[in-house]
Amino acid sequence: MNKRSARGRAALRLTAFFLLGALLLEGFSLLSREMGRDRAALRNYSTTSFFAEPRDTIDVLAIGTSSVYSSVAPMEWWNRYGFTGYTWGEPSQRIFETYEYLKKIYRTQRPAVVFLEVGALYRDTTRAQVLDSLVKSRLEQAVPLIAYHRNLDPRKLRNLGAPRHSVTKGFFPRAGTVQSDSLSDYMKAEKSTVPMDPLCSGELRRCVRLCHRHGSQVVLLSVPDRSSWNGSRHDAVERLAEAWGVPYLDLNLELREEINWRTDTVDGGIHLNCAGAGKVTAYLGSYLSSRYRLPDHRGDAAYSAWNRDWKKFSGVLSAAERPVSSAA
Amino acid sequence: MQYNSWLYLLAFLGVTVLCYYLAPLRLRWTVLLGASAVFYWISCGWLLCVLPLTALGVYLLALRMERVKESGRAAAAALPREERRLLRERTQRQTGRLLALTAAGAFGVLFFTKYFNFAAVNLNALLAALRVPARIPGLHLLMPLGISFYTLSAVSYAADVAHGVCPAQRNYGKLLAFLLFFPVITEGPVSRYGQLAPQISRGNRFDCRTFAFGVQLILWGLFQKVVLADRLDRYVGNIFDHYRSYSGIVTALTAVLYTFQIYMDFSGCVDIARGSAELFGIHLAENFRRPFFANSVNDFWRRWHITLGAWLRDYIFYPLSMSRGFQRLSRWSRKYLGAYYAAAVPALFALLAVWLGNGIWHGAAWKYIVYGLYYYAITALGMLLEPVFLRLLPALGLSREQRGYRIFQILRTFVLVNVGMVIFRADSLPAAAFMLRSVFRPYRGGSLAGVLAAQGLPLGQAAIAAAGAAVVFAVSLLRERGVCLREAVARRPIPVRWAVYFAALLAVLIAGAYGPGFGSVDFIYAQF
Question: Is any Cβ of chain A less than 8 angstroms from the Cβ of B512?
């Protein structure tokens, strides 16, 4: 009897321990998310702002790494074509995270077109790293503190209660120029490139299927980035796109002549600055308007907030640099 | 697979622990063997095949050694005394040859994969200097993960079998489970067969206390690695990469921060490894014992990477010191130099082999050899001058027991260790020499805080690192005074205990230098 009651007490203690631990983690996770509502690119605040958009109002979604949120400014599409878009970018996003985010996105939105930025496929170079990213992406959904822990900075306390709405629609305007060290053609094939891990391509396939299931048309997208892309990687993604019957838009090639690596990059060829983002956004806008029948909501009262956002967005850009607007 | 990765901590370790305790007791070692194989395969793919193959050689040769010894013992029983002695000598020669073959095979693989290109480069330079047209081509070699640690364990096992310290393992799988044991394969501690293998082979029942202690040790290791070592990595890397731009206080501080970084990195990794093993009821050897409380370089190496030092002592220093040549040298020294030098002179020669071995074990570069020789020079100087110090200190009214003198010794050792770490970390020997000289040149490129912030350690990050360092110092001080913190915490009431556990978990999760803004930092010693 004593033994049984001792076991019962131990079980109770263990349950209490894990419950308390779960409560603590949940509490700190909530705090870390709320304190992250600022413009720091560590974890893009705009991704959480995505859920502040009214249901089923986003026509185009661009999702991927920091390359996406540095290059795609959906407000420019609104101004020029009248369709709505949102950029969901996370720094160093892995493809496993992309899948998790897409699942969340489809709870509130049904974008007609989804740009799946495929830079996320090559972030990890070893099998161990790929598996780690897989575990981490799943874990982060259960314990967001792991993803947002760096927001728990006393200086970010002022973000608590800050408005969620994003006028840049996920775009992160980056001012300044640090020209690339080399201006050579980085898209030449490199045979020594580390091959794409099958787990990553498999997860991309799941992303594509998820989008198709929700009625979205998928475009695989590569954004100009000298540090990540080369001919071999392009070929590998192109083979996948052909096999799955989805278009692949590699802006490293499409904008080879337009992107000036002396003036359009903010960090020596990794991310684009506002000038480079203007070129990418303009190209994608033209691509979307010519291939997809996306609605023009500019006269629709339900979308009046977007007109207000456009004015504010222009102010945000003025605070950084203007070229996005002029290029678009 | 990194020991601080989610993959290892949650998926791999979690599944392995579950399988281990669900398996029948007598088969639990197979779970560890399987887990080690999976760990190895995930980490380096097909290179998984290399170590089991070399382990097969070690296994067969160790069995052969034991058979030679057994047959020698059986034959000797019926022989008269003199013939028994001769037979014993012949048996020893045979086992010695087999041991040499085993060591040559194990070290051969290590030397080929780790040192071939280094040797080729230096031989080519020599050939060029001698105007010989021949050249040794460099090879693109992949080094199996943990081969440096594996080799030491394999050779020590063979030596222990040869010397009768432990019996040869008749089950190849069990030997492999010992040699490939996943917590120690990447960064040690260097394991001895007699200490580790029985714990793996017998299988252990679940013990709540040992398990909880294991989890605590893993958390403590993560704190050292993720909160402290990784936080300093970017700053230290930037300064070492651009060492010519810095001098004075910046260079000196960087040397200290690197020393702290590598200590936290290595000690953190070993604590995660020890904690992982404790989840299976397996206790690994201690590898660090508060090294920065050491009062001499020798004392430092008795506290730093203890298991490597012990290996070099037991398998290089002692065999050399006890060899016939060294015994003759000892007698000669006693005759001509006196009693003190009778022991010191042979030791000096044996230590040269030890420190060369220590240096070259760390890597295929001259800086590592110089790193070993640097410590040899200090040790040798200390030994040669010891009689002088023994006379000088009382004459100056000093005693080694005085508190002030002990603090001086600790600081002196700390400075010497930092100089060694600059040699160890710098890109090359000229870079190390430049950095050491530049410490004496004032830095005029702005404030120290400005350099820290610009090179990856802004005020907030530096404050976290300083607070973490204070915690490490406090814990070390308590342990130096004989307080076992794990036991002390375990004796506290539940609210206090839980508060400590949750605080440790949250400290790692919140203050850890991981995720966006921080690069993934490999364990420093994993490359050795």
Answer: yes
